[in-house]
Amino acid sequence: MNLGSPDSTDVKDVQNYLNEFLMDKRVIDYPWLLRKILIEGLITPKRAPKSAEAYKSVWLPEGSPLIVLSRQLRDSLQLQIEEPVELSMRYGNPHPAVAFENLRKRNPDLEEVIAIPLYPHYAMSSYETAVEYAREVHRKNKYPFKISFIKPFYSESDYIHALSQSIAPYLEKEYDEILFSYHSIPRRHITKGDVTGSHCLKTENCCTINSPAHAQCYRHQCITTTRLVVEALGIPEEKFGISFQSRLGREEWLKPYTALKLAELPSLGVKKLLVVCPSFVSDCLETLEEMAEEGKEIFLKAGGESFQLIPCLNTQPLLIETLAGWIKSYIKGSKEMILI
């Protein structure tokens, strides 16, 4: 399972996609009527034409990069395991019901579906909504099989190894800093998801103090992924940074904001920059357009000399091996990577 994409770059298709995405109560958690007025009356009519142009700049002959790359991942994984593999999106197509029906056609005696939400980190607006939506579709259609979910894998050793190895070749050339840019979320989503009700964002170092809240704390998990990758690659403390991109609206989201960071870094002596976006498993609008085009322009205009975006894991063999390994382990009886 991945996020999804418009069916085309037509403004109408983009607006329909944005309406579905932003009307999700786990993305914008305002009361339904207020959400309806804001999104369908104000936000998407203005945003859709701009987003359509952005999509056009990265659209592939086969379609949306996210969909194309996700299909390639599905096909690569299928080569590694015997069990049938299908693809679905949280928003747009293919719908989870289509994936479920395809799996039933391929295996009429299907007893269990293992769903892999392609979000390394837990957030109510990404991982949680994907899981709950799949469960809702499963429940409404009264499927006879059960459904299980791979947990967020932000700290899993195989994932960290795959991510680190995808970054390693880019460190061989001279660089001043590598910036880990994660998709941002509103700060209130962090506190809302705090299972203790008293930990997240209460102190400056809350993410490094052990707490049950970390199981659903996006910020802690992003920081943890960064720390583990930096340790695996031996990156000095002075040569990496963390930021958060893709903010929507005027309220406060997780900081520092990537766009502001990119504009500031050259004045701090960072002229040669590497950027990696670990919250995305597959390259998409947020990496290919927002970062590789807009982000690069911001950095170079501010005085930067070179900007290199490191591709997402996409269909790299180590990622495929990792996903296949988790499935095989589960089938053999290991429940460690599964959230039931």
Strand fraction equals 5-15%
Just name the CATH architecture of the largest domain.
Answer: 3-Layer(aba) Sandwich
CATH topology of the largest domain: Rossmann fold
Give the spatial strand order of the biggest sheet.
Answer: 6-5-7-8
The residue ranges in which pLDDT falls below 50 over 5 or more consecutive positions are none
* First-last Cα distance: 16 Å
Number of strand elements: 9
Overall radius of gyration = 20 Å
Number of helices: 12
Shape from CA axes? globular
Q: Considering DSSP H and I runs of 4 or more, what fraction of the residues is helical?
A: 40-55%
Q: Structural class per helix/strand content?
A: alpha/beta
Features:
globular; 340 residues; Rossmann fold; 45% helix; 3 domains
Topology:
Elements: E1 2-5, H1 11-22, H2 32-58, H3 65-78, E2 89-92, H4 96-106, E3 112-115, H5 124-140, E4 146-150, H6 157-167, E5 177-183, H7 187-192, H8 218-233, E6 240-245, H9 258-264, E7 272-276, H10 285-288, H11 290-301, E8 306-309, H12 317-331, E9 338-339
Helix pairs in contact: 1-2, 6-8, 9-11
Description:
With 340 residues, the chain is an alpha/beta fold. The protein has three domains: 2-58, no CATH class; 65-155 and 317-339, Rossmann fold, CATH 3.40.50; 157-309, Rossmann fold (3-Layer(aba) Sandwich). The protein is built from twelve helices and nine strands. Strands 6-5-7-8 form a four-stranded parallel beta sheet, sandwiched between helices. The chain has a three-stranded mixed beta sheet with strand order 3-4-9. It has a two-stranded parallel sheet with strand order 1-2. Helix 1 crosses helix 2. The radius of gyration is 20 Å and the shape is globular.
